[in-house]
Write a structure and sequence with these properties.
25% helix; three-stranded antiparallel beta sheet; alpha+beta; 31% strand; five-stranded antiparallel beta sheet
Length: 131
């Protein structure tokens, strides 16, 4: 697999379109941190790391509105790809959906959101947009 982050986002996107409650994703440290951020920001209901096999699995419980059966994640967009890396300094941090969404960045301080990066005054690679 050449782009594990794109695979992670695609698995989430496909599970949302199929109205699945739980999606399983092969684990890595970067994916664990991205999942933690999604849980902290309220985009997913819960997650669990399962040490199964050589790599492990992340089980993600998706969050749906109880009345309308609409998922809390509307769109997942991969920004930086292996062929074209996208970086942003703290002065020109991207605003997703005019501040309503988040951008996940890989920085020297770890995997954080665009708002946390602006507060810490660090730039980094823009991994994806979520809203």
């Amino acid at each position: 697999m050449t782009d594990p982050i794109a695979d992670y986002l695609t698995r989430l996107r496909n599970a949302i379109k199929a109205n699945h409650r739980v999606v399983e994703v092969p684990a890595s440290n970067l994916k664990k941190e991205m999942t933690r951020i999604l849980h902290e920001k309220g985009y997913i209901l819960n997650y669990k790391f399962v040490e199964e096999g050589p790599q492990g699995i992340i089980k993600i419980a998706l969050k749906y509105d109880s009345v309308n059966k609409v998922n809390s994640i509307k769109k997942l967009i991969r920004v930086s790809t292996p062929g074209l890396r996208q970086y942003a300094g703290y002065q020109d941090m991207p605003r997703v959906l005019n501040g309503l969404g988040i951008a996940i960045l890989s920085t020297s301080k770890g995997v954080i959101t665009n708002k946390e990066a602006a507060d810490l005054k660090v730039g980094g690679e823009v991994l994806c947009y979520i809203y």
